Amino acid sequence: MAKIVFEHITKEFIDEKRGKVRAVDDASFTIDDKEFMVFVGPSGCGKTTSLRMIAGLEKQTMGNIYIGDTLVNNLHPKERDIAMVFQDYALYPHMTIYENLSFGLRNLKTPKDEIDRKVKRAAEILSIEDLLDRKPRELSGGQRQRVAVGRAIVRNPKVFLFDEPLSNLDAKLRVQMRIEIAELHKKLGTTIVYVTHDQVEAMTLGQRIVVMNKGVIQQIASPDELYNSPVNMFVAGFIGAPSMNFIQCKVDNDRFIAEDIYLPIPEKFLKAMSKYQSKDIIMGIRPEDIHDEKYSQTVKNKSEIMANIKVVEKLGSENLLYFDKWGNTITARVSSKSKIVYGDKAKIVFDMDKIHIFDKETEMAI
Amino acid sequence: MAEVKLGNENIPVFVEKESKSFKVKRVIIYSILILWCAFTILPLYFMIITSFTDPNSSANLQFSLIPTEFTLDSYKYFFTFNENVLRWLFNSLFVSSIITISNVFFASMAGYAFSKLRFPGKNKIFWMLMCAIMIPGQVTLIPLYILVKDVFNMTDSYYALIIPSLVSIYNIFLMKQYMTSIPSTLIDAARIDACSEFGIYRKVILPLAKPGLAVMGIFSFVAHWNDFFWPLLVTESSTMRTIQVGLASFKFVDSTMYGPLMAGSVVASIPMFILFFSLQKYFLQGITIGAIKG
């Protein structure tokens, strides 16, 4: 069993300029055995600090961490049975790839023939058998990343920790390595904790995702749930690319008023909106739920507006339209068949069944 | 515009010519550099040609660029002048080597601690050391001499020559600055790879710090090999002299034996040349190539 338990974990740093800084604030959650858990959030949100606390590279200010059933608060990284892949690979430049892979096992005084067997197996899994005699500087970025993963595999640990492992790779290689990491998880069946700031990586890899902001956990949920039922505006805005559009509206009986435009409140929200009468709320709508009127036959609950299109991005499979409305730039992801071009005054359709509503004060979902 | 023949066609091409002012600039720069080199090499050249002159004729210094004679007599004179000449060489070698080794060991450990480890009072201790570096050596010389002579009674011994220089603050500073450039993730990776703290220093930090250690090693060795004043102060007997102090004995009240003195200087330079050329490859070596992204 290699579940990981965070019990009221707080981590504070003393910063010379800012004084006491709380990097992680009272985090409690459980990562199940064999689960692929992704930590996601903007820079400085505390995700890497959380990972480093699991690794034992940072000590928490308060709270307990369990790996399996063992309380690991005071255990050295080597006693935690974990392996970590770093963002910058962290390969030992003076050692060959074979020595890099076997370094951990040699430190654990593993017999030579066993080291050899394990290194060769890891090299085979990652297709780096031909690189074993080379030095890290002779490898490409992708190969180095594979070696870094290999160094984790040879140890056969209870938990794998990945700290933004793909952020230094180019876009194509990143997609390829993402697939390889997902396959690796299936093959090894080990608990994986993966940190990234890239929400696409988080959505595609994670069985569950922890969304963090300013040291506070915002939501822990499956990718689907995060996407469809974000608990607050931060999660709604962070998950999804392009991100969700937010429009400030006033509740007026069974409709929203956004400046001069009236939008009918969907039936499922009518009851909840009764206590927001005459108050401002934030309506959220994802770009894919805004359509070109000519290609909106499938939309049941339509609201039409006119928009002056200021930018059109043709991505091949779809077009992205940008227009200014309500003081914001609204993004719409429409069919690639759409004929709307830059400068058009176009009829745009909102799919009102797909909207999200947030309290303006608390920014929490209603 | 010039023309280049490609197949049957003459293709016009633009050839960028060096401007006149650029050429003049280059001539000036090269002239300055050549003059600078000549000034640097001249003392060395003078030392070598004088060492091959007759010990007696060179007592009265005559400087000429073209050597007029070639003899090894000055070398013979140097080695037979005093029965302890070889001992002086050995003393210098022994003292400089021990000091260099101890500096490499202690300064690298301290540099690692100051650059990569977290411990209470780290910055305060480091700044205290930095303040100590600013005190001129001449100021501490007399208290140090009293300490060595009267408190520990170590004069005229290897202890007196070695112990005060076991580790220099300047070297700690040098190593701290150098080790700061080693990526901390390598240390984290080694910690996770079940390496002990001393193991990290020995297996990861030291191999990566080789270029820095080489520079520090050469500086330490050269500084102590050439040190004259401290060995002169703390040694009395001829057997405890170092080569630099020994060489001074070729200077008499009314004349100087330039031939043997220069022969001795050439001999005394050999270990430094060997050290420099055996370690020079590290100066050019980038340490973290391939370790991290890019």
TrEMBL record, chain A:
The keyword Transferase does not apply. Residues 4-239 form the ABC transporter domain. Its EC number is 3.6.3.-. GO terms for biological process: carbohydrate transport. GO terms for cellular component: ATP-binding cassette (ABC) transporter complex, substrate-binding subunit-containing. Keywords: ATP-binding, Hydrolase, Nucleotide-binding, Transport. CDD domains: ABC_MalK_N. It is an enzyme of class 3 (hydrolase). The keyword Amino-acid biosynthesis does not apply. GO terms for molecular function: ABC-type transporter activity; ATP binding; ATP hydrolysis activity. Pfam families: ABC_tran, OB_MalK. InterPro entries: AAA+_ATPase, ABC_transporter-like_ATP-bd, ABC_transporter-like_CS, ABC_transpr_MalK-like, ABC_transpr_MalK/UgpC-like, Mo/tungstate-bd_C_term_dom, NA-bd_OB-fold, OB_MalK-like. This is Trehalose import ATP-binding protein SugC.
UniProtKB/TrEMBL annotation, chain B:
This is L-arabinose transport system permease protein AraQ. PROSITE patterns: ABC_TM1. It comes from the Bacteria. The lineage of its organism: Bacteria, Bacillati, Bacillota, Clostridia, Eubacteriales. GO terms for cellular component: plasma membrane. Keywords: Cell membrane, Membrane, Transmembrane, Transmembrane helix, Transport. The chain crosses the membrane at residues 27-48, 88-114, 126-146, 158-175, 204-225, 257-279. The keyword DNA repair does not apply. It is found in: Cell membrane. It comes from Clostridium liquoris. It is a multi-pass membrane protein. Its main location: membrane. Belongs to the binding-protein-dependent transport system permease family. Residues 89-279 form the ABC transmembrane type-1 domain. GO terms for biological process: transmembrane transport.
